[in-house]
Amino acid sequence: MRQAVIGSQAMVVSPHYLASTAGARILEQGGNAYDAAIAVSAALAVVYPHMTGLGGDSFWLGWHHLEGKVRGYNASGRAGSNCTIAAYEGMESIPNRGIRSAVTVPGMVDGWAAVHGEYGRLPWADVLAPAIGYAEDGFPMSPDQAGHTAAHRDMLAATPETAAIYLPGGAPAAAGVRFRQPDLARTLRRVAENGRDEFYTGETAQEIARYMEAEGGLLTAEDLAAHRGDWVAPVTGTYRGYDLYQMPPNSQGFAGIMTLQMLEKFDLAGVEHGSHAYYQLCVEALKRSFRDRNRYLTDPAFSEVPLSRLLSKEYAAELATTIDVNQASDEEAVALGSDTAYAAVVDAEGNAVSFIQSLYFEYGSGVVAGNTGVLMQNRGSFFSLDPNHVNALQPGKRSFHTLMPAMAFQGGKPAIVYGTQGGEGQPQTQTAIFTRMVDYGMDPQQAINEPRWVWGRTWGEQTRELKLESRVAPEVQASLAAAGHQVRTVGAFDGVMGHAHAIRRDEHGFLQGGSDPRCDGAAIGW
């Protein structure tokens, strides 16, 4: 298992070592954490294309040492003007794949531009240069990408533009081969030269809109041109002396705070880590936060989310009293996509950025828009076609979003910067790594290495399982099953648990970095 990386000045963590290196290069060139974060994000869009890309969304939390406050940027897209329930007449749900699953405008490039325009130090083109190089010159395909490509060969083959990139010669490429994306490189070069408007009104936007119309898609040139993300105030809570920060709705971030505030009512430090009680308390607290998340989470511009009540300590205490350490509660689970990329950067000035991005499912919609090299996301496939559902599809609406970058502060400054890939698993893995650091004194890498769980179901699954990595003690697995959980044992370091990363400032002022051994990532510090 990996050991924690310790740096005295700066730290970069991401799910791909080349993306982490891109961020480190930008810091060495004099960039700050925001510049480096954009470089990491853009690099991930190239070297981790099954998880993220220019056709997807992102959420950003940042703390600038001169401002002294946490700000968020919601770079998620809204449903197009033609994306109505009537457009899917005769269907029970929006398709998970294909051109009609591309319901929402991609917010990624707008997010880069907003963060760079507000806080960037280096020129725009410089922070995109590493990604352009990886796309033009190629990079060694990661085992993770190779595995996902092979698993989804038929889906990728369904769209000629997609197959031409990801199935060269008609077959998935093996890990380690040089993987080039010349169309994506040209798109990135145009964005570097012309700015964010290239993606929303320029040549790239025109080609996306042309392709969507030609193939029966719903997004239009006007939808792309109208897109703007939003600077937002984070939602907040506290846990054992830490101030917690998460993105507000349409992000599920509040569920992470709710869970920790319930667990604060229990003496976790007095509970043996890895025991039945540890897993039971965490899982049952999460189930209760998910119940409220599923009931309320949507675009707050369309429906109120009662955050003041959900995030109150009184409500946390009320929910905590319903948790039985010996009995599983019966809660419904929604099916969510799970493929995402989380990363974080802290620089020598103390600036910190926690961000996460996604296409929703692996390879998103499976549709590359014409000659752009851009895979379109399928985030909008999670909208409901029931007009009475809180997450019902409406033009201009943002969907329920799983993405939730996190920060925790002590003494008014960032202490822990953390997050994970994994859809439904994001609040669960965040809870695991945070309680392990705070309640059990683990460093970030140890907290990430330890066995994990995930409750619920991802898309295509019908059961509400409690998946446990095989390293969880057999007697604990048996006791959880006896308590009523549908226990299923998975691999020792199973990818279904997500790819978590974290940075923590220790008592000596050093930065400890952890990256997930379940992925191809790296922590780089100095």
Oligomer: single chain
Shape: globular
Number of alpha- plus pi-helical segments:
18
Q: What is the domain tally?
A: 1
Low-confidence stretches: none
Report the top-level CATH class: Alpha Beta
- Give the N-terminus to C-terminus distance in angstroms: 21 Å
Side-by-side strand order of the widest sheet: 1-19-18-14-13-9-8
Second-tier CATH architecture: 4-Layer Sandwich
CATH topology: the name is: Glutamine Phosphoribosylpyrophosphate, subunit 1, domain 1
Computed structural class? alpha+beta
Task: Note the beta-strand portion.
Answer: 15-25%
**Fourth-level CATH superfamily:** Gamma-glutamyltranspeptidase, small (S) subunit
Tell me about the largest β-sheet: 7 strands, antiparallel
Helix content: 25-40%
Instruction: Write down the overall mean pLDDT.
Output: 95
Radius of gyration (CA) equals: 21 Å
Count of beta strands: 20
Search tags:
alpha+beta; Glutamine Phosphoribosylpyrophosphate, subunit 1, domain 1; globular; 18 helices; 19% strand; 526 residues; seven-stranded antiparallel β-sheet
Provide structural commentary.
This protein is an alpha+beta fold. The chain has a single domain, classed as Glutamine Phosphoribosylpyrophosphate, subunit 1, domain 1 (4-Layer Sandwich). Helix content is 35%, strand content 19%. It is built from 18 helices and 20 strands. The strands form four sheets. A seven-stranded antiparallel sheet has the order 1-19-18-14-13-9-8. It is globular. The two termini are 21 Å apart. The model has no long low-confidence stretch (mean pLDDT 95).
